[in-house]
Fold these 2 entries.
Entry 1:
Amino acid sequence: MPSLLSPTSLDLIGNTRLVRLAGPSARTGCEIYGKCEYENPGGSVKDRAALFMIETAEREGRLKPGGTVVEGTAGNTGIGIATVANAKGYKTIIVMPNNQSPEKMATLRALGAELVLVPPTKFADPEHFVHRSRRIAEETPNAVWTDQFDNIANRAAHIEGTAAEIWHALRNRIDGFTCAAGTGGTIAGVGMGLKARSRDVTIALTDPHGAALYSYFTAGELTSEGSSVAEGIGQGRITGNLEDAPIDCAFRVSDKDALTVIRQLNAEEGLCLGLSSGINVAGAEQLARKLGPGSTVVTILCDSGFRYLSTVWNPAWLREKGLMS
């Protein structure tokens, strides 16, 4: 039996469990597993990247005692950074679009982060949350900008951690992996880690509408159509983390289909999840059907639905967005 003792709170990051998803498995005739990343102390998959980026900055001498960690984020990476920074004695400044869930904002404030809210805008705009966070880091004494989108310490967390955990938990028996991309760190890192163990594992991107990577990996062009209310995923450029990502195929999932999935998982399996997890699981079903009956497919359960009680789990909000069936 593995040890249940953790020397520090940071040792709680990673080694999350895989859960067999009964409904998706039954519908496809495959074994579909979700990696329970909401088990991390900051409540999401982003804790892994936060720890690796901060410890890389420490090793390189860029982050010194009493320093400040600055990041632009849709929320979960900021929460992960604040969690790790608190444990290590650093201050945190988080820049976040003001249309993200109130629960994420409240969580960041509870963690003691200085929260800077900016209007959502295109990446080319100098006031985009990424560019604003970089400038704040440059102007703040003894500060480091973690640069989650292009800092490959992000994907290293998944090469060294997530991929290895999946491989060993399933005793080398995995046929496919899929998830959506925000920074690209998870899909690229897990893909690289699994491909290093077996070239036969199929790595699939699952994109929401409004993102451009589906068209890039299927037609070679960064174009998008439609939109999504999913937070933290959907990308319009090839980030540093996505460069050389071993993606074999791609799927696209609508918000309505993803909402159906998370409602089923909640009602039938007791798993209350966020919309990105619904997109991932819907993509896992598509990948399972592509690979055929008997295949084993893994995806990421990014965070809990309790982080979205005012949005995707709020009927009034869904009606306002035209998503209430």
Entry 2:
Amino acid sequence: MRRLSFLLRPGWIALALVVIAFTYLCFMVLAPWQLGKNSRTSRENHQIERSLNTDPVPVKTLLPQQDSSAPGAQWRRVTATGHFLADVQVLARLRVVEGEQALEVLAPFVVDDGPTVLVDRGYVRPEPGAHVPPIPRPPDGAVTITARLRDSEPMGKDPITRDGFQQVNSINTEQLSVLMKVPLAGSYLQLVENQPGGLGVIGIPHLDAGPFLSYGIQWITFGILAPIGLGYFVYSEFRVRRQQKPAPATEAPMSVEEKLADRYGRRR
């Protein structure tokens, strides 16, 4: 134990605490964060690929009731017949479409014999100074639309009002239902090209798994190497200290005269 007493010094204790904290972060925070993003990306890619090869279905088959949502069918193409609530529109601000700033226009759509759903009509480009440009009203009367089913986004900051439009930071159906004072289904619809009331078309993401899996594996590797590195430093320090330990002192050999004097001195 005395040989390892150097581990109780403040510098070594601090180093051990840093390694423990780093290892914990790698295994419990950083690696799960990246692996979770990889799982979500893989699931979304699978949903997109499936939607490209599947014919549209009536929205009521996936959203049969007012409080329905369909997280397992995101990006699936659906059709709906009904009418827009043209006087109720909200803008999603701070969006990016094709690398440029955009405003997405949101409006409720009442499905015949079905739920009221939020419809993302598409995007418009803001005018200089981030002002809202003129936005065409959606058509009055009954229309049939084709759209992609989308999951509600996490709730963002409180809405603001600018240029006569209420604006939100995220497309969260619960928040927008309160803001619009209209009941909305849990999932929303994003119009595809050439649809009644459509604006700039928002494309689907590219099928790219991204680097999240490799990042997750890297953090796991770092979490394994950190304690191994600490162990190596402890071993190296212990070996150096053992090599530097002074050898025990030995008595010098006695000369012949000393031996004779010692012998005859004992006889006397």
